[in-house]
Amino acid sequence: MKKTALIIFVLAVLVSAGTKAQKKLSLQDAINMALANNPAVNAGESQVKVAKAKNTQAKSSFYPKASILSKYFYTNNLPGMYPLAGVNVPVMNNGTPTGDEITMHPMAPYPNLDRDVLTFDFNLIYPIYTGNKRKNAVASTNDLDEFYNKSLNETKAGLVQKVKTAYYNYITITEVIKVYKLALQQFNKHLDLAQKAYEEGVRSQFDVLNFKSKIADFNSKIIELEGKKAVVETALKNLIVIPENDSVTFTGSINDIYNALGLAGQTGLATIQTNNYKVQSLESMIKLLGKKEKMERAANLPVVFAFGNYHIYHGRDFPPFDDSWRNGYAMGIGVKINLFDGNLTKGKVDEVKANSEKLNDYKDGMKLKLRFEYEKAIENINALKTKMEAEKTNLDVGRKAYEIAKTGYKNGVITNIELNDAQLNVTKIETSILNIKKELLIQYAQLDYLNGVMK
To answer: Which one, out of 90, 151, 205, 353, has a CA that is 20 to 30 A from the CA of 293?
Structure first.
């Protein structure tokens, strides 16, 4: 008895642990997890960090550049003779000056050839005028940051759409399985009726076999749907980055989500063409290329810079090779002008302009594509709404026909085939309505994606 109680206790603990480990996720939970964990989003966020780092680099050009260069070394020069300043010496002829002179450079050795040398230089350089290259460089990194953010938002919006699509498919399959299982229960009841009628000699064995065939068929369809559900669940787990073996349940009902959404008000095309993140990304890149063109044009403009230097030397490495300490400073203004670069700057400017024109063409093409996708989604929504109304009417009729068929079969008025047809018709319409609701939700998710909505 004690052993049995222990086993029951252990099983209860295991079941409890399994229940606690299971995660229940709503649609919003799945979206939040995807936005937080998906590698594509993480990669986009890293790109934004790159843009911010480039902005810091560009801003550094507005500050002076200071550097220190110091060297200490010991040197040993071989003794040698070094020329002194030239001396004019008269030309003599038998001790008498001729009036001509020649310049002589006598050689003399220098002492202290073995010595240690220390040099120290502190340099400071600051660009005063660069043809607005620094200003445009900072502005271009701001545009780059905007471009990466828009691209990241596009990635997020696309990810949200994928999560919604997978989620709607998952819960729709779950609802369809429920409908099929309910139909299966009805078929089992019909089978019981047919068996009793057969035993009483009212119905033939064909009725019993027919119902058994339908039950087997529905069992097969349920197994097939369970397989599809597992595939969709795996895809959904991958999107939100959950290990495949983790136990998770996606909660929600297609009817509840459909009713809560309301399906009111449609986003206009002009709004979509303005809010779409792909269009905004292209516009950001076009702005970036505009700054780059200005920077390339400034390559041939003069650059004015200020410089300063303070130096300390000990043990000169050139004549007079003494051990004296020397220090001093220098400061001034410099100008650098590129006179001719072989049309390199012109080629770079032309390349940037061509890329800008190409992106403008892409943007125009993107707007045309958005128009097509928007109108297609609207047409699909209108068609699905019309079909929904028709199916609702068909469902009312089908349910009444099924009730009549059940009564007729009990009274022996109709055959089992007619009863099956009546029930299958109801099941088919109920499944159709679920799929229509799913497709409507997917079309509205498409509109949200086109409009840059991330929720």
So the answer is: 151
For the chain, which residues make up each domain, given as ranges? 29-63+130-302+337-450, 86-112
Residues ≥6 apart with Cβ < 8 Å to 85? 105
Mean residue pLDDT of the chain comes to 85
CA 377 to each of CA 268, 270, 334, 371, 447: distance values in angstroms, whole numbers, following the listed order: 12, 15, 64, 10, 7
Torsion angle of C-alpha atoms 418, 420, 421, 423, degrees rounded to 10: 120
Rounded to the nearest 10 degrees, what angle do helices 27-37 and 39-59 cross at?
A: 50
Tokens of 404: 């009549």
Instruction: Specify the CATH number for 29-63+130-302+337-450; select among 3.40.718.10, 1.20.1600.10, 3.40.1280.10, 2.60.40.10.
Output: 1.20.1600.10
- Alpha carbons 27 and 156: distance in angstroms, whole number: 15
Which phi and psi (to 5°) does residue 16 adopt? Answer: -65, -45
Owner of token pair 């088919």: 428
In this predicted model, what pLDDT tens digit does every residue of 17-54 receive, in sequence order?
444 456 889 999 999 999 999 999 999 999 999 999 99
Rounded Cα–Cα distance for residues 62 and 133 (Å): 11
Separation between Cα atoms, residue 137 and residue 295, nearest integer Å: 7
Is the distance from CB of 125 to CB of 68 less than 8 angstroms? no
